[in-house]
Amino acid sequence: MENPILEMKSITKEFPGVKALDNVTFSVKKGEIHCLVGENGAGKSTLMKVLSGVHPYGSYTGEIFVEGELQKYNNIRDSENAGIAIIYQELALIPELTIYENIFLGNEISNGVVIDSNETILQSKEILKKVGLDINPETKIKTLGVGQQQLVEIAKALKKEVKILILDEPTAALNENDSENLLELIKELKQQGVTSILISHKLKEVLAIADTVTVLRDGKTVTTLDAKADLVNENVLIKNMVGREIDNIYPERHGIEIGEEVLHLENWRAFAPGLGREILKGLDMSIHEGEIVGIAGLMGSGRTELAKSIFGNPDHYRIEGDVYIRGVKQNFKNPHDAIKAQLAYVTEDRKGNGLVLIQDVKRNISLANLKEIAKSGVIDENEEIVIANRYRSDLNIKTPTIEQKVRNLSGGNQQKVSLGKWLFVNPGLLILDEPTRGIDVGAKYEIYQIMNELVAKGMSIIMISSELPEVLGMSDRIYVMSAGKFTGEMPVEEASQEKIMELAVDY
Amino acid sequence: MGLAEQTELEAKAKTKGLMEILKENVSEYFMFIALIVIMIYFSFTTDGAFISPRNISNLFNQVGYIAVLAVGMTLVIIIRHIDLSVGYLAGCMGAFAAIAMTRWGMSVWVVLPIVLILGVISSLVMASPIAKLGVPAFVSTMAAGLIFRGALLLATMGTGTIVIKDQVFNAIGNGFIPDIMKIPALGNRHILTLLIGAVAIVLNIFTSLRTRRAKIAYKFEVPSFGLFILQMLLMSVVIGYIAWVLSGYNGISWSLVLVILVVAVFQFITTKTPLGRHIYAVGGNPEAAELSGISVQKITFIVFGAMGFLSALSGVMYASRLQSATTTAGLGFETDAIAAAFVGGVSAAGGVGTIVGSIVGALVMMSLNSGMNLMGIDSSIQYIVRGAVLVLAVIFDRITRKNQ
Hints:
The complex is a heterodimer of chains A (about 500) and B (about 400).
Chain A: E1 4-15, E2 18-29, E3 33-37, H1 44-52, E4 61-66, E5 69-70, H2 76-81, E6 84-87, H3 99-103, H4 117-130, H5 146-158, E7 164-168, H6 176-191, E8 195-199, H7 203-209, E9 212-217, E10 220-226, H8 234-242, E11 261-271, E12 278-288, E13 292-297, H9 303-310, E14 318-325, E15 328-330, H10 335-340, E16 343-346, H11 350-354, H12 361-366, E17 374-375, E18 378-379, H13 381-394, H14 411-423, E19 429-433, H15 441-456, E20 460-464, H16 468-474, E21 477-482, E22 485-491, H17 497-504
Parallel strand pairs in A: 3-8, 3-9, 6-7, 7-8, 13-20, 13-21, 16-19, 19-20
Antiparallel strand pairs in A: 1-2, 1-4, 4-5, 9-10, 11-12, 11-14, 14-15, 17-18, 21-22
Chain B: H1 3-12, E1 14-16, H2 18-24, H3 26-45, H4 53-78, H5 86-102, H6 108-133, H7 137-155, E2 162-163, H8 167-174, H9 191-217, E3 221-223, H10 225-247, H11 254-272, H12 274-284, H13 286-291, H14 296-322, E4 324-325, H15 333-343, H16 355-374, H17 379-403
Helix pairs in contact in B: 3-16, 4-11, 4-14, 4-15, 4-16, 5-6, 5-7, 5-14, 6-7, 6-14, 8-14, 9-10, 11-12, 12-14, 15-16, 15-17, 16-17
């Protein structure tokens, strides 16, 4: 066997409280297309960040060898100089600059003082040819489509001698045509001797293009397969991706009666503001009292957009279709209206849009329902303390005092504060978006128990989750989302991880 | 409630000590302490001229029109915006009031409400691109400032300075509350001022006691009783001293009355009402606020509306103080107001700051002004000192916050 161009040996990377990579070994042969697959949070992106120097040498344990030489990168520039280029899912181009300015950003060709535009444009043309983009380099990036922008990004990477090209979900935002073009390009680059590492959720695409596939799960390498072998198909990959047994970490609930319908969606569509891209494509959905409905799907499938579009549409999508709460048609203009109709939404991104981190626990808990503790327009701060303390003990929020600023709490406790805030508005329907992301097992169990208690009281819960075991362990019924559509709906008894994953990658 | 009952209550109270309280509030108390240090320093360097009743009274009147702006600016900065138009809006509104009274012969009692409402409307118009389209406040308010400046020049074109003769209007910036009687034993002292001081002390003790009792009834932690007494004593001394000093000159000025009213109302709104909470939440995390059912747009309008009201009030106070509307009225007010807010602990990152803090900030900046003037320090040096104090205050604030 020929020498690998890249070898990552026993890579372990820990974040506070989480082991993102656990003794990962990853080896890439020269000139191949190597795909990296795994569930959300399996560690793919972290591994690539270690490789590209985003996580510098010393912040992880293990060794990286490129062409047999030990590498110690302190930043991205080091890895670039070593011939490693990474292209992220979110494009890093500057829309207001031209193609050639973007390609040479940070590496401007100049006589020391003044940029030599003519030379830059000339060189840009050459590079653009390599990626098959026949377009004037003086065009501004913002006038290009996403597919073309992706090609510019690759061109930018290719301007230096690239040994290893890493692409993180390059086709996630592309339509079919653009995706195909991109995959063709990667194959062509292979002919030119460029080794590519491709992260992708789209297994069909992976099997079409890859020479080798490595599967990561829970921060560990599960297996590395020869993609051209007969036995390797989507099912094999899916089994390896989800492979773990469901542990018994989901508390059981018994004898909860499913009551009347609480929420009903009919042909629910949403379009992004501005460009008008269709985000949600005609969804029908129904949730009843006492029910926990799981929504599974990969990141970017439109799950959070669905939650927000129901919850008063704060991002101002253009919406078509009808929403009914207990049989009454609703027209929420903002989250305030939704809250009045007894909806609550615990956001996925606690720090970004869930909590006011610089305020203390009690103010966060009372925020969405201040009128409850206000007497003739004046907040009763003593009452507020009583209520905050009640949720602190009910939800077992671990904080020295309720005057503690929320940013000083751990992820699990922040999540409980967020939950407490929404329980205080006394909702009929609770939407939980990734309720246990980044939370340790103990806190997870507590949150599951709380969910069970809530549905026992007749509340309905929509749980959006990327963790399939959680979806299977907690839901009564499951919707699977993919690319803005429900690709499946089933009672939990009929569901399995494989089945869900199959539907989730059904583009 | 008698003393016995209070003793009984105190026995049940959970208390905390001095160090704990100081630790929790170090950055809040710091500027207060800095203010006192500055005042003591100037009292020495000016042989007591700084602390003379006349100068203190002047200081309060000088600080008035900046203080009301600082109150509004505090809210604006809390919700992560800035308002660069306030100075020109104030100048413009002052000129409007002058013209309405002198040229159109309108009564002062009609003019005042119109000016205040006009201030609100101007500010709301200016705020709509900010609130509705997300235009940066920096740009929108700077543009509005230019427009207001132009309007002011237009209004004063031809005549230049417009002299105001209305007694009532001019009393706002120069007058003092009337006295009720003279007590020969106290010499020339302003009796009503002393009386108000006494009432304020009693009220403060009364409400503090009530709050404390409620807390104890809820079984919450309170400062130990000794500390509570000390606190009351300190507050009483401060209030009493200010009243005593002011009574030695002409008593409480109408400017001071206005400032106290504005501070009281806005302090109440920001600390005690849902609206206040909403303002802080929008500043702390606008997206989380929106998802909590708070309309960020509505809060933006309310805050800028309040800023417009206070700008107009500031313009009236300034015009009244000069007894005229001038072409340069309002020049640089926004810098003073923003500086007062930052010195007073408002964070440019949003969500942090108090009304009282900003008032202390305004007092610090104005004390520096007044003290250095009395010492005969050249204005070039004054600018440098004030700039240094501003940046030091912000650095200190940054460090103490990081350590928390």
